[in-house]
Every structure is written in structure tokens, then in C-alpha cells.
Amino acid sequence: MLLLIAFCVVFFIQSYFYLFLFRKYTSFKPSPDLDKTSSVSIVVCAKNESENLKNLLSGLAQQEHNSFELILVDDASTDDSLSQMYLFEKAHLNSAFNIHIIPISQADSKGKKAALEKGILAAQNQYILLTDADCQPTSKRWASHMLAHFTQKTVVILGYGAYEKVKNSFLNKLIRFETLLTALQYFSYALDGKSYMGVGRNLAYKKEVFIEARGFDKHNHIKSGDDDLFVSQVSNQHNIAICDHKDAFTLSRPHTHFKQWVRQKRRHITTATHYKTSTQFLLGIFFISQFFIYALAFTALITETFTFIILPLFLIRLIFWYGTIEKTAARLNEKDLIAFGPLYEISIIFIQLYIFIKNIISPPKHW
Questions:
Q1: Where are the domains of the chain?
Q2: How is 56-109 classified by DSSP, letter by letter?
Q3: CB burial class (10 A; 0-12, 13-18, 19+) of residue 137?
Q4: Which end of the chain has fewer CB atoms < 10 Å from its terminal CB, N or C?
Q5: Residues 270, 26, 251, CA angle at the centre, nearest 5°?
Q6: Domain 29-174+190-257 sits in which CATH superfamily?
Q7: b/e per residue, 192-226, with b = 16+ CB within 10 A?
Q8: What is the DSSP letter of 248?
């Protein structure tokens, strides 16, 4: 009986997330509008990103936006990242957009947050659009689509940072599925007035909000969090919007080695411990219910206990789970992840469990 009660509890928890909270996103009707007239400052921080900068800067130069400037911050690179910036500036002296390069010496380097803050404070425009050096806009209208969602009240825009698809790579599908599920969560939470994160690969906000918040001062003691902790700090149910138009994505190269990806996820999970208590609670019970929906169904099947109730409920959960994932994957251009979605979900559950235990036993100190 205890098994049945436990399964029913996690079933109803999962039902809340997939049928109510996540429906905020899957039923959301986006605006297709473009805003080509508002002036925007695109800020990019780079540290030893010479090769990636070549691709990114080319994509930024092709933006079909009427008025923008590029703020390029080199955070004490030891490769020729700074040289790439100056070469780009020289090649675009007569372009319609302005370029402002900020070099930071090794002695003055204090991490990404400090470098990003220098770039934002140097911006001449009220709208700030952020991406990373290893990213690439998916279209020439990226900036215009992101800016279209600003209003007098809206001060933060959350975008989607996708990863390139690699054929015949299970790790690549895991990374993209985890990214899709994360986007489903932070988009849904934002639309429900509970915003807790965004991704620095594709994020926009008003400069005045950054100044009013005194930049990253509130969490400057934490190395990461320039995106999620800042969004959590300044956003509320009235001042945030999302942009998931396919022409407004950014695209990044994913990790090709499992250890590198796990190291990245360990850092992300560590940052999550600084989220609001209510956010940590909701994210926690979602993960716990994810784990136990599978664990308890498997236990019931093996022990042949209440299978006539548990297995039908499990199949019902699978149906509305597929419905949510299918709609999300269609919106985020990740349809190839749908068929084997449960396999990716189970894999990610155990990877996250491993990372959680690993972080408790051996807290990460260096990244």
C-alpha cells in the first residue's frame, strides 16, 4: 500500500508540472514582431576565444538592425583574441554600427562578472543584448526579434541558447535534451511569474535595471551567476518576457567529452543553491518526482505490486509527458529528440543524481 501511495503522490506532482506549470509555455502565443529601430548595445566578453570570435563577429556584423553597437571585452586573453577584435574593428571602420573594444590586463582581470560589468557600463544604449564568444546568432534578425519584446514595464528578455547537432552522438542528444528541458522550465516559470534564471548565451535587459541593482554586487562573491542569479534578482511577474522565435536563437558548440559536460553541470548545480528558497523547493520536488516516477513504476513491475493501478498511471504520465516535450521540441527546433525522449530523461536523472552526490562529497573549487 505504501508503494501505491508514494506513486500516486509523485504522479500528481508530475501532473502539476506537465499539465499546469509547463503548459504556461507550451500554450504561449509568441509575438512575431520585429523592432529594428531601438538602439541596442551587444556586449560580448571573451577570454581565449580567438577561433570562436571569428564566427561570432561575422554573425554580429550581419545583423539587420538599424542601430546597434558592439561592446567587445577581452578579459586578459593569452591567445590572439584581442588581435581578432582589433582586426574586426579595422575591417568595419565604415560600417553602420560602432565598435568599442575594452582590453583588460592580466593584473586587472577579476573574472567574467567584472569584465561583463565593464562592458555593460560602457554601453551607450539603454538596451543590452548579451551572448557568449562561442555562440552564433541563427539569423540576421536575432537582435530585432529580441528587442521586440521590450515594453515600458518589461525590462528583461529571456532567449534560447541552442547547441549544434552532431550526428550519431548520444552525448550530443543528452546535452540538447537537457538544454531543452531547462528552457521549458525557465520559460514556464517566467510566464508564471516565478522567473529564476536565463542563459547568458542569449539574454537582454535594460541598462537602467543593471545600474539600479548595482550590477552583480549582490552575488559578486560567487564566480558564476552573471545570468541566472542576476535574472532571479531583478525580475518579477510583471517585468519579464520570453523570446523563442527560431530566428532569435543563438547556437553554440556542445562539449564532445562527457567529463567536460559534467564539470560544467557541477558548476551550474552549485549556482542553483543560491536561488530563492521557493525556487529551490519547486526544482527539487520536480527532480525527486522525476526520479521516483520511474523508480516506483519499476519496483511495482518487478514485485508485481499494484501494477493494475500503477502501470496505467505511468502510461498516462508518459502520454502527457510526450505531449509537452513534443510541443517544446517543435518550438525550439529539437524534434529529433522526441522519439527516445524517455531514454534521455532517465539518463539525465541519474547524471544529475551523480553530480548532486559528487558535489556533496567533494565540493567543486576550481573550474
A1: 2-24+277-361, 29-174+190-257
A2: HHHHHHT---SSEEEEEEEES-SSSHHHHHHHHHHHTTTSSSEEEEEEE-TTT-
A3: buried
A4: N
A5: 55
A6: Spore Coat Polysaccharide Biosynthesis Protein SpsA; Chain A (3.90.550.10)
A7: bebbbbbbbbbbbbbbebbeeeebbebbbeeebbb
A8: G
**Beta strand 135-137 with 98-104: parallel, antiparallel or unpaired?**
unpaired
C-alpha cell at 350: 541519474
What residues contact residue 206 under an 8 Å CB cut-off, 6+ apart? Answer: 126, 127, 128, 150, 155, 156
d(C-alpha 111, C-alpha 29), whole Å: 38
CB 116 within 8 A of CB 229: no
Verdict on whether the full-model pTM lies above 0.70: yes
Q: What is the DSSP code string of 131-196?
A: --TTEEESSTTHHHHHHTT--SS--EEE--EEE---TT-HHHHHHHHHHHHHHHHHHHHHHTT---
User: What DSSP state is assigned to residue 208?
Assistant: H
User: By three-state DSSP, how is residue 44 classified?
Assistant: strand
- 221 in helix, strand or coil? coil
Amino acid at 305: T
C-alpha grid cell for residue 92?
Answer: 568595419
**The one-letter amino acid at 40:** V
Nearest to 262 by CA among 351, 329, 360: 351
DSSP state of 274: T
pLDDT in tens, the chain (367 residues): 899 999 999 999 999 999 999 999 999 988 767 888 899 999 999 999 999 998 999 999 999 999 999 999 999 999 999 999 999 999 998 888 999 999 999 998 888 999 999 999 999 999 999 999 999 999 999 999 999 999 999 999 999 999 999 999 999 999 999 999 999 999 999 999 999 999 999 999 999 999 999 988 888 888 777 888 999 999 988 999 999 999 999 999 998 898 888 888 887 777 878 889 999 999 999 999 999 999 999 999 999 888 899 999 999 999 999 999 999 999 999 999 999 999 999 999 999 988 888 877 776 654 3
